[in-house]
Every structure is written in C-alpha cells, then in structure tokens.
Amino acid sequence: MSESPGVKKKRAGVLAGGWKALPSGHTYFIAEAGNNHNGNVELAREMVDLAVEAGADAIKFQKRDIPQMAVASVLDRPFQISGAPEWGTTYRQVREKIELSPEAFAELKAYCAGRIDFLVTPFDLPSVAQMEEVGVDAYKVAAFCLTDVWLLETLAATNRPVVMSVGACTEGEFREALKILEHADLALLHCVSSYPMRVEDANFPFIRWLEGFGYPVGWSDHEDGITLAPKAVAMGAKIVEKHFTLDRQLPGFDHHFSLDPESLKQVIAGIRSVESVGEADHRTGKVAEPLTRDVLPCEQQVYREKRKSLVTTVAIPAGTVIVREMLTAKSPHSGISPDQARSLAIGRRALRDIPADTLLSLDLLEP
Predict the structure, then answer these.
(1) Does 110 fall in a domain?
(2) pLDDT in tens, 48-92
C-alpha cells in the first residue's frame, strides 16, 4: 500500500491517560490485525498504514508462545491451511509459520510510534515477558484466557492498561477474573466468541450490564459485516474492536470474517456519524432483568477447544505433592480450569505417575 501524507497523522495521546481518560464522545476503535499478517512483518506494516489511514485509534496484534498454546497431542495433529500447504502439515507448524518474532514486534512498535496506539493480546506468560521488553500501550485479555489466573495476575502487575473480552464464560468466572484485575487500568468488552458471529447472537443488553461494574465498556465485534459496530456505540460502547485484513482471500485463520480495507473505513465512518449525533439521543433500550452471563450455544466450540486447563510442566511421580511450578495453562478445556488450581490441585498428591504435558484431572489426584 502506498503511503499518503495523511497516513502519518494520529490523534495524539488517545490512550495516554488510560481508559477512563478517553475523550468524551469519542469511540476508541481498535483495528484487530491479529495474525492476519500471516507471519510477514511487511504485511503487518501495511496493516498499520491501513489502520491509520482508516482513522483507527489502535492496532492490535496477537502473540503466542506456540508450545504454551496447547498440549502436544493438539499441536502435533495433522493440519493444513487451505491454499497454503507450504505452511506445514501439523497445527504446530502452521502456528509457528504465522507468528512474528519479538524483533518484528519491536519493529512494529517503532513503526506505530506517534501514529497509532500499539496493543497486543498475549496468550501466555512467555509472550507477556517478550512484550514487556518491546513495550505496549495496552494489553488485551482474550475471552478464552479469562480463567488463566496466572496470566491475569501477570498482566495486572505490568501496570499497563488492560482491556478484557467478556465472552464464552459464566458470570462467576467473569467476577473472579475481575477480582484479579479490579485495581488495574481496566476496560471491559462485551464479546460473543463465535467466528463469525451471527447478528442474532449479539446480545447487546450485556453492554449496558457491563457498565454496572464501573469500568469503561465496549464491544468486541465478530460479525461478518459492518452493521453492528455503530449500533453498539449507540448502546453505550466506548470502545469497539474489529478484525481487519488487507485481503479476505488470503490464506489463514481469520481473513474470511475480517473487514477488507474499504469496509474498515466504512465502519469507522459509521461510528463517527453516531458520535456526531450525540450520546444522549442514543442511550435507549433497557437491560432485561435478571441478566446472567453464561456460555452461549454459539460459543461452545471455542469454549471446548480454546479455553485452558491445567497441564503438567514436568513428570510427577505418584505420591508427590502438587506445587505451582509443576503446572501451566494450555488448551483444550477438558481438565481442571486454571482458576481452580489453588482449590482443586495445588497441595494435593498425585494418585499415580503423571507424565509431563498431561491435562490434569481430578481422577489423577488423591482425594
């Protein structure tokens, strides 16, 4: 993409004062690049240019330590991306192909400086450590990481702004995550973890419900289209996040439901039009009572495949007392949830020999 003189312009310091200091009447738009750069830093730079040109306030990338993503049986299963067989023949190989190095992230951070805020979703502790070296303007907690208490505690300790997607979770799980992050510079996004999401699954009353927790709220939009984002702003969303791509025909995981360049510009323009009418005229609708957050039917696949479980980091002999250092959090969600580590796993003894990289379940532990 050729860079025009206007591309370098940016609303300076939009997030400089944290989430609660966002300008009144202005929706903070996060252009979600994710991994749609396909592991190519030049494509990532083009995405930065597009996000700036479209008028986004931030661009957000994703960072994973691939061995920490899931247990080996998931990572090493046969897998290919349609249209890109050269990326590999296992899920691990494909994921490794589309990851950017810490050096590439540092390059992108510098490329964004003075132009657009630089956000990252880290999915694990090694990724947080790497991004702390790079320096980010804010972190994002993915919905399916909401129960990874060690990740949340680490993010809270960085003292950087954090925005958390509230999706594919129960109200109880959300409230427990909120306890960990309650003193952080925090914003909350209503999210439906379905890719793409059907319009009828949007559940917009939860935007208003989240406002009751006292943090800036927004909408993480997975619609394959541009109709819902302006409506979310009319419902009170102060932040909107939406995936975009340079080309929907590119191979990869998220291109098919991401906005193309023209649609990205259109959705941001639509949001700005809603802002220009005035907030007071648009705060309509009532929150149904009672309203309880639970995992939606359309979120079940993400809940099973992407949510994390406790996994052993070392081989644990029978009779050994489980300690924190023996555990990590990985997908899939078929063992003890990380937010139950202290109550159900740590301090108990192994009932039998447990190999490393094993999903920890109650039947492996003494009562």
Answers:
(1) yes
(2) 999 999 999 999 999 999 999 999 999 999 999 999 999 999 999
pLDDT score at 278 = 62
Non-local CB neighbours of 240 within 8 Å, separated by 6+ positions: 27, 28, 29, 30, 218, 219, 221, 229, 232, 233, 271
Residues 37, 181: one domain? yes
Cβ atoms within 10 Å, residue 287: 14
Do 232 and 138 lie in a common domain? yes
Q: How many residues does the chain have?
A: 367
118 and 159 co-located in one domain:
yes
Domain span at residue 345 reads 308-364
Residue 223 lies in a domain: yes
Distance CA 142, CA 193 (A): 10
HSE at residue 251, side-chain half, CA atoms within 13 A, is 15
Of 8-12, 210-214, 225-229, the one with minimum mean pLDDT is 8-12
Assigned domain for 91 exists: no
pLDDT at residue number 290? 58
What CATH number is attached to the domain comprising 136? 3.20.20.70
- Other C-beta atoms closer than 10 Å to the C-beta of 309 total 22
How does residue 145 score in pLDDT terms, banded at 50, 70 and 90? very high
Whole-angstrom Cα distance, residue 252 to residue 126? Answer: 24
- Residues 315, 293: Cα–Cα separation, whole Å: 37
Are residue 195 and residue 109 in the same domain, yes or no? yes
Question: Do 337 and 147 meet the contact criterion of CB atoms below 8 Å apart?
Answer: yes
**What is the amino acid identity at position 121?**
T
Q: Are residues 159 and 254 in the same domain?
A: yes
Name the domain count of the chain: 2
**Quick one: tokens of 31?**
């252009």
Angle between helices 149-157 and 125-134 (to 10 degrees): 20
Residue type, 339: D
In this structure, the strands spanning 239-243 and 217-221 are parallel
For the record, the structure tokens of 59 come out as 């661009």
- Residue that wins the pLDDT comparison between 279 and 81: 81
Q: How far is CA 231 from the centre of its chain?
A: 22
Q: Same structural domain for residues 38 and 168?
A: yes
Instruction: Assess if residue 293 is contained within a domain.
Output: no
